[in-house]
Amino acid sequence: MKKQFLIAAVIIFLLVPGSLLWGQWKGIIHGVVMEGRLGFFRPVQFADSFRAVFDSAGSMVLGAGVRVELPRGIYVEGALDYFSKDGYRVYVAGTKAVRTDIDTSISIIPFTFTGGYRFKLKPSLIPYVGGGFGRYYFKQKDIATELKGESSFKGHAGYHLLGGIEFRADKPISFAGELKWNTVPDAIGEGGVSKYYEEDNIGGISFSFKVLFRLK
């Protein structure tokens, strides 16, 4: 009986202040927007390693997020992106990097938080800027990493700056174009092709097309 009472007391203790805080926050939350995005990522921070493994200058990125709009044009946003690409492992022999026929792939999953400002020049056209931080989960998978037990995701701290323009911003469904720069130091470079090219950062530049659904 004491256990059930304690559980009930804890629930009430958590819910009552939570509901009061929500009542206070409702007055200053001007909008809630969900978004989905499709973008192109260019790995400028590790361009040589990327091109050696994938014979490509970049790849597509998918993402989703939630934006909360506050007074005076301020907003906060949480987002999740996903990037994955298949290529071939590169073997470093002396002073040369040789591309093999061994399949490999990398995946990057960033969880990011952004704070920024929206310039309400017109109701239907709103430029915005922002900056923030996140946790970038990186994984390389091939026969070599699996044998070493190194094919799991590893998290690394990263930071970003962004800017964009939202169109039809006064409608329930709107669209935006966004440019983002990010840096994720000390994520690679301990061996292999990234060490050969002296690259340790998995950051870069991405451009995204966003579809936004206004909930409030």
Account of the 3D structure:
The protein is α+β, with helices and mostly antiparallel strands and 216 residues long. The protein is elongated.
Write the layout of secondary structure elements.
Blueprint: H1 2-26, E1 31-42, H2 47-54, E2 59-69, E3 74-93, E4 96-118, E5 125-142, H3 143-147, E6 154-167, E7 173-183, H4 192-196, E8 204-214
Antiparallel strand pairs: 1-2, 1-8, 2-3, 3-4, 4-5, 5-6, 6-7, 7-8
Q: Radius of gyration, Cα only, in angstroms?
A: 22 Å
- Which of globular, elongated, flat, extended, rod-shaped describes the shape? elongated
Number of β-strand runs: 8
Distance between the termini: 43 Å
CATH class reads Mainly Beta
Q: Order of helices and strands, N to C? A: HEHEEEEHEEHE
Provide the structure class.
alpha+beta
Mean pLDDT over the full residue set? 83
Question: Features of this protein?
Answer:
single chain; 216 residues; alpha+beta; Porin; eight-stranded antiparallel β-barrel; 4 helices; 8 strands; elongated
Task: Characterize this entry briefly.
The protein is α+β, with helices and mostly antiparallel strands and 216 residues long. It contains 4 helices and 8 strands.
